[in-house]
Each structure stands twice: as structure tokens, then as C-alpha cells.
Amino acid sequence: MREISLELTHKVKVAAASGVPKMILTVSSEMQKFGKSMKDRQWPSRVVAIGTSTGGPAALQYVFSQIPADFPGCFVVVQHMPEGFTEMFARRLNESCALEVKEAQSGDLLLAGRALICPGNRHMRVRRMPSGDIVVLDDQPPVNGHRPSVDVLFRSVAREYGDTALAVLMTGMGDDGAAGMGAIRKAGGQTYAQDLASCVVDSMPKAAIERGFADRVIALSNLAGVVQAQCATERVLQELPSSPTDIVDSEGGIRRRLV
User: Fold this and answer.
1) Fewest Cβ atoms nearer than 10 Å: which of 33, 47, 122, 170?
2) Which domains, and CATH codes, for the chain?
């Protein structure tokens, strides 16, 4: 036991001396899960980032229930919710709508017709890759008092997608997401806020609206239609690679290598 402990200590010291350790994530499990049908899956025409809090579960279920299975875009969602609850929430959404909804894992692919829900107590970012885009989770400190934080997701969307970014800020308490929405607008992306009358708590969209960061204010009943129309105008879909892929994160960068 002592020998194992000494060996582990030595490995930790070596890793520390060599800088940031590499993190290898495999998405071959994605390929295995869908099998032959993976060839029928497509990259999204657009990535839609959604942030919400109080009242969000019911609002998201309402919106997703109106999105068809052949939706050309992909949703990435931060819902303020404790750890352990997001998996059940994602499962419930998956069972009640035509989209494929799942709790996100690092390395999950952004696919057409898919919605990825950020796990509780994790931050989620998007990362564009030569062979397809992914989400990356981390345990960095809370932002605006939240982990997950909408601002963290929105800022990454602004950085990675620029003027093709699309963000929606929905019902919720506080102002998480307002600054991130501002970053998306500054990058040339489109920003939508749920109208205050249809919110359970209007603080989050109101903060973005009052700061001039929302291009459009849309009633909950119209959100699904507006998002579908926007994504359909840019329906540029490509086939997925047929081979498993490795994602290598080294010194803050992520590279993808086809096998």
C-alpha cells in the first residue's frame, strides 16, 4: 500500500512539473450508441444557446414540445438546477418531446435535433472543432453566484460562433446571462429574450432587455416558431464522420484526431 502511495505521489509531481495535464475524451461511444444510424445524423445548421432559471423547466418543456425531430439546429441549455436533478429533467424532456434531450457530458457532439442540458454544479462551454463541435464541462468557481452559469455558456458561444451565434434568455431570477448576451450581440450574433408577461420570474430577461442586449422580445408561445424559422434559413447540414474520434485537451486547447 505504501509503495502504491509513493508511486502515485511521484506521478503527481511529474505531472505538475510538466505543466497542464492532457485530458483525453473519447466520443467513440457516440458513434457506438447510434451505430449505423450515426451516418444519418447531421451537424446542426445553427447552435441555439438557452439560459433560464425559475420557471425554466415548464417553459423549456413547452418550447421543446413544439420542435420537430428533424429540427436542423442544436440546443445547448443552462438551467439553474441542483446537481442530480438535471439528469432526471433531461430524461423527462427526452420522453416528452421529439428532440433527443440528454444531460451533457464533456465531448458530447453538437448534432441536429439534439438538446444538451448542462449538469447541475458544472459549467458548460462550447468548442468548435475541425471535425465537429462539442461541449466541454468544468468545475471552475461559480459566476454570478451560479454553477452552472448562463454567462459562461453565452460567452463561449460568442467566442466560438461570433455572428452566427443565437441566444435565448428565458424566465428566471437574477441577472445571470445578461452580460453573456451582450457579448453575443457585440460579436454580431442574434439575441432573443422571453417577454416579461409570459415569465414566471422576469428578472433574467428584464436585465438583458434593460441593458439593450436583446434584439427581439418574444412571447413564450412564439419562441419555438421564431427559433425554427431562424435555423431553417441556414440549413447547411453535413454528414458525420464514420470513424471514432479522439479529443485531446492539452494546455487549454482541444484538438480532435480522427482514427
Assistant:
1) 33
2) 43-258 (3.40.50.180)
Q: Cβ(43)–Cβ(132) under 8 Å? A: yes
pTM of the model: 0.79
DSSP class of 36? G
Write out the catalytic residue numbers: 53, 80, 176
Mean pLDDT computed over every residue of the chain: 83
Q: Which pLDDT score, from 0 to 100, does residue 130 have? A: 85
Mind listing the pLDDT tens digit for each residue in 111-146? 999 999 999 999 999 999 887 899 999 999 999 999
Q: 7 Cβ partners below 8 Å, 6+ apart? A: none
Residue 5 φ then ψ, to 5°: -65, -45
DSSP E strands, the chain: 23-26, 47-52, 74-79, 100-103, 114-117, 123-127, 134-138, 166-169, 190-194, 216-218, 245-250, 253-258
Assess whether pLDDT exceeds 60 at residue 87: yes
- Grid cell in block for residue 249: 485537451
Q: How many CB atoms lie within 10 A of CB 105?
A: 17
Number of Cβ atoms within 10 Å of the Cβ of 116: 25
What pLDDT is stored for residue 40 in this prediction? 62
Distances, alpha carbon 22 to alpha carbons 1, 30, 180, 218, 253, in Å: 27, 21, 28, 43, 9
**Structural contact between residues 128 and 160, judged by C-beta atoms closer than 8 angstroms:** yes
**Do residues 150 and 169 touch, judged by C-beta distance below 8 A?**
yes
Q: Could you tell me the pLDDT band of residue 39, with boundaries at 50, 70 and 90?
A: low
What lies within 8 Å, CB to CB, of 122 at 6+ separation is 83, 137, 138, 139, 147, 148
Q: Which burial class, exposed, middle or buried, applies to 240 when counting CB atoms under 10 A from its CB (0-12, 13-18, 19+)?
A: buried
Cross-strand pairs, 127: 134
